[in-house]
Hints:
Elements: E1 6-9, E2 12-15, H1 19-30, E3 35-38, H2 43-48, E4 54-55, H3 57-65, H4 70-75, E5 77-79, E6 82-86, E7 89-93, H5 95-99, E8 103-105, H6 108-121, E9 126-127, E10 131-136, E11 144-149, E12 152-157, E13 160-163, E14 181-196, E15 206-209, E16 215-221, E17 224-231, H7 242-251, H8 255-260, E18 266-280, E19 283-284, E20 287-289, E21 295-296, H9 304-325, H10 329-356, H11 364-379, H12 381-392
Parallel strand pairs: 1-12, 2-3, 2-13, 3-9, 6-15, 13-20
Antiparallel strand pairs: 4-8, 5-8, 6-7, 10-11, 11-12, 14-17, 14-18, 15-16, 16-17, 18-21, 19-20
Helix pairs in contact: 1-6, 1-9, 3-9, 9-10, 11-12
Amino acid sequence: MPEASASLRTQVVIVGAGPAGLLLGQLLARGGVDALILERQSADYVLGRIRAGVLEQGSVEVLGEAGVGQRLLAEGLPHEGIELAFDGQRHRIDLAALTGRRVTVYGQTEVTRDLMQARAQAGLRTVYEATDVSLHGFDGNSPVVRWRAGGRAHEARCDYIAGCDGFHGVARASVPTGALRTFERVYPFGWLGVLCDTPPVSDELIYANHPRGFALCSMRSRTRSRYYVQCGLDERVQDWSDDRFFDELRSRLDAEAAERLVTGPSIEKSIAPLRSFVAEPMRFGRLLLAGDAAHIVPPTGAKGLNLAIADVRNLARALIASCRHGDEADLETYSARSLRRVWKAVRFSWWMTTLMHRFPETGEFDQRIQEAELGYLVGSRAASTALAENYTGLPFEN
Ligand code: APR
Ligand code: PHB
């Protein structure tokens, strides 16, 4: 490394400044552990990504513990129920009555913005536009992370590396083949999403199962809506004018909601594929994975961001115990404990995806089974409670 400008030392190098990496940095700082964050993109690019919008009650609590709960509490919208629409009717699932818990609608972009601001205010360092990040020595006692920034090579020696760099990141890819087992399901459709500055069609989220395909009415605030329709994997965003999108959405809603839908120019429009993915284990020596780096769920259950927050909560505690007190017990069990919860969320997201979408290969028998399950779900308190319990979030340790 002849032109190295600096070789520094920190306790934890965090790769990725999405919500997982930023939250981990914040919790570690509050626990007295030193960390450096490396992010491939610019801060503006990270803030420009439109992602999820529903926080479990437990996630809200963790963000509060991290010191970034203020704006979330003031501006987040508490939701005590969701609506399932099928067969021309809407059915309310009363999350609060069934579980005593609620969820909060607050965009991932806003969570990220709050975490970035808290980090800047605390004078903590994030290197944006860090390229060629590479991970070394995590199977021994002296891991090193190298990267390039500002045209120069850098390296940091550390005690632990946290891979919070998403599905396409370098952390999971650095694990030797054979040490990792992966599980995957790719769904035969995507979601076409639109963000627009119009009042949401309903006070609560509407998940619709319709012969033309799934639709979701969500929101970011009382004046900003987020809508999705299930689409084929071969669809292209440029083929979907705003008018075409809203006509399609309207056709999948019940008459009353379709009538009430206020449309407006889209401020973002994108297609996302749907996938379930889990990598096991989530720890290799001194490298620990969290969030999308370790697992992906289809968005139907709104679990992606919440799972990342749950991983990071456990990881921060384990790293603080090790770095501050030399106690490695929680790190030893981090992977197994996280994966137990991850698989329950993977199951729930798969189940809700299967229940709410039209699959190209579905025959008449499967169709009737889906209709029976929807009917059972809204007609049975036990079945509604199972949905509500998962939707509002399982306990962190279970
Ligand atoms: N070097 C440095 N940074 C990287 C690298 C790399 N090689 N590869 C990826 N990154 C960065 C990405 O640019 C991104 O900002 O890592 C970050 C990962 O962030 P996310 O993809 O947002 O993943 P995570 O923080 O785990 O967030 C959980 O919840 O709503 C879901 O999928 C949604 O992003 C969401 C996730
Ligand atoms: C969203 O608002 O983007 C959203 C809400 C609920 C979901 C998925 C996405 O299940």
